Amino acid sequence: MSGYRRRQDKKRLYKGLGIAAAVLIVGIVFVALVLGMADHYRFNNDNSVDSRDTITYKDQTYTRKGNIETYLITGIDSPGKVQELKEYDGTGQCDVLVVIVRDRSTDECKLLTIDRNTITEVKSLDDDGTCLATTDIQISLAHSMGLDQKVRAENTVDAVSHLLGNATIDGYAMVNMGAVSVVNDMVGGVTVTIEDDFSEVDPTLKMGETVTLMGEHAENYVRQRKEVADGRNENRMHRQSSYEEAFKPAFRTKCNEDNKFPLEVYHALEEYMTTDISAKKFCRLALLLSDENEDEKLSISGTYGLDEDEWQTFTPDEDSLQQAIIELFYEKN
């Protein structure tokens, strides 16, 4: 029996017993650019994070930043518009997770990209949103729990918050990856150099060629993974970063031509996303993130592996994770 079927059967069994929900594991950064963190942590005596305003880590004292706001932007592995769900099918996982921390006093932004396969504590939800259990699984699965889109979004926020030491997330946007082609075409296409072998999924994307991505080809470039290169998410994240850098000037050009363009993008995305970010906030963040200033980008190092069903995993290095949390939310005394 396949891993997919086994996990379907486990979910039904656990649900009937009332013990836990089983999860399915099935197979933008650009989203952060068009859309646009955190007060509470834990640091124990062993150098883990807590909710105090002042903490000590490796003999250095840090104070929590007070004038920041935090957003979680995710790209959801769904090709079309957001739809009402009638039954659990394990779809709708996060392909992209980006945490944006904005300093309100300087308008400087820091971006943390989280690997979708990061192992962390995730709540397993029943169809009605009831929490059945918490399990250490891939963070991407948080958005596949429950049937209500808002519940899925909030469960994802909860998982990211837990990973980052119980950080407060001030806003979120869960955007279906099908929106990539929509926004891509609104900016007139995005020019990239193809560095991977796409022959199995999109023969028009030929390795070594520089092309202007349009329509479904843009979505293929940022979304496809299993049949591209080594099939690892690490490779796709690098490709998404390249797309992001090429997208920024194209988006900025359109904004310079029409100051209402960010609002047009917001309205174009509405059918593809679940968000609590207002149109006004969206436009401000979009302009801020697409300006010519270099945003600081952070990442978490760790170990790649496979779980018992041969699905990819990423186990964060604890020290690297702590350093990312401090960089985002604290400053030296």
From TrEMBL:
Residues 94-242 form the Cell envelope-related transcriptional attenuator domain. The chain crosses the membrane at residues 12-38. The keyword Translocase does not apply. It comes from the Bacteria. The keyword Cytoplasm does not apply. Keywords: Membrane, Transmembrane, Transmembrane helix. Belongs to the LytR/CpsA/Psr (LCP) family. This is Transcriptional regulator. It comes from Blautia obeum A2-162.
